[in-house]
Queue: 2 jobs
Job 1
Amino acid sequence: MMEVGQTFTSYFDFQNNFEEYKKTFFCDFAISDCRTLNVARKKYPQKLKNTPDSLKYYFVKFKCVHGGVYKKCSNNEQQRSTSTMKQNCPAFIYVTVTSDGTKLEIARMDECHNHAMSSMLFSNLPNQRRLAPQTKSEVIELMDLKANKKLIQSKIHAETGKKVTLKDLSNINSTEKLKHRPKNFEETIEEVKNTYKCTIELLVHNDGTLLGLFLQDSRMKIEFENFPEMVCADATYKLIDLKIPLYVLLVEDGNGQSEVAALGLLVNEEKETLAWFFKKFKELNPASINTRVFITDKDMKERTVLKSLFPESFMVICLFHTLRTFNREITCDKLGITPDQRDMSKRIFEKLCYSKNETEYMQIYTDFINSELTPHQVVAYFNKNWHNIREQWVTGLTSESGNFLNSTNNRLESFNSKLKSVIPVYSNLTEFFRKLFIILKCIRSERDHCAMKVIQKIPTTIFQNLDEEKYYKLLTPYAFNFIKKNLFCPTKFLFLL
């Protein structure tokens, strides 16, 4: 209970009693007026010279959170559809310093409320849902780890009894982000260089605007030196608030695992920008002289740049992008063909994609162009865009390029999906780099674990002969499995030798 004339030796003492009072009667209050001792001493220095600082206030007035009247807008057309907690409740408590200046005293109070009061209503008031700083820090940490908000809410309910809402959790996270000002571009780049020991090269326009960024840390450089033979290249989008694509170069190691070789942020995908990026990659990685094949999409600018910088390397077009491009271009509207002709052309093109060798390809191709059912528009399009570069997209022909049986960029798509599962859409640059290296650390940890298993574990199966055992000791288990399938097939085995 609290009553007029009740005194308290400190503001802390008053607060404890006040909290019990609010919980008992299911009512909440907020400070509507006050004057601190520090301010009051300037006006009453003699009167308050012996007043202890623990009282904190010269006077303080608490009004019910439903007190006050909402001031309506005079122009009805401009009113928004909102609500207010102000219900003109008269309840208040007025606390002031006693006449001798040694205690706080309840001078006046009104306990008459004009609204419903219950335990459920009280527990859902904003002040009662407010979390302690430590709990709030835990929420921010869990939200940053993308924990399910419903599970976080359940945890808080169980541990604190607070009726926190899902919107409260979102607001806590948003408020915390606003407190931390994103670093500018120069600060971010310097932090990435120092924290992750990266090599970063910038392409800047004459007016100082960024055109491109090349990034490679020591692990990327080492992995490429060890496995430079095949490089998958592609871009992914919507990761950075600058709305520029992230370019990823990826290689395959001896265990069949994917490793990032280099990263780039390119403002555009023009020929000049791509040329700068790949030229920088070539300059900083002498092992690129051993790169035998690049797997890309059918972008002419990219393939032209790669062919000029790596004339000895094969260009392989990702099978998925090949089929998708053909499906986009072979349409009734673009070529003026019927739906049946379109569907027939697509089926034949798919057969051409999966041809096992040149002979099979030419047989299907000859039947295709000589058929009376084949529209001449489709033949013209195919001959112009695909036939003369068949060694870049026919699976039976690309396997001779040294692509380690990779006919698609699925490795890159897998990496890109991991990026998007952790990095929010259109993140600021600081947040993007922080979470990018979290992903890289996680992926590398898994890759290293797989490599350690190769060393630490030996097969429990018995080898069928001495040759099989020798191959196993020479190769990684991943490579050995390919050899094992062909070990007892004379024709294929001779080819392997």
Job 2
Amino acid sequence: MDFVDVNESNARWVQDFRLKAYASPAKLESIDGARYHALLIPSCPGALADLASSGSLARILQHFRSESKPVCAVGHGVAALCCATNEDGSWVFQGYSVTGPSVYELIRAPGFAHLPLVVEDFVKDAGACFSASEPDAVHVVLDRHLVTGQNAGSTVPAVQNLLFLCGSRK
């Protein structure tokens, strides 16, 4: 991992960071869902392109769905859920209630016309129920073992619900 603008004031932090285990994250392809109790997918713009079509993440999400393990996705991270399909091609979260960035939030950002995926449209087309609040409002949906948050501002309550689900599992 490379850092830009490293100078005397932050060089020690960069050096310390590189010594930490999380400085070299595991590849998604090597993750065994059976080893994990919960999954958190934060809001990240890359989810729209990379994670939304990841076969490795699809395998993990299919495992979590079949075991009813807690899954939490927030903001653009909700797009990552779109990769998980059943053998018949249906979405594994069909019939769930979900939130994510609304079209109204997305159109305000530059590059809307070039987005590879609009989560709201995908969710509705895949047979799930999509809801959203006003743009930038906190909005979280909990359905069974799935927690979704509309935007980055919904991160704290979404993660609190994820932790609640983790604590209630037997």
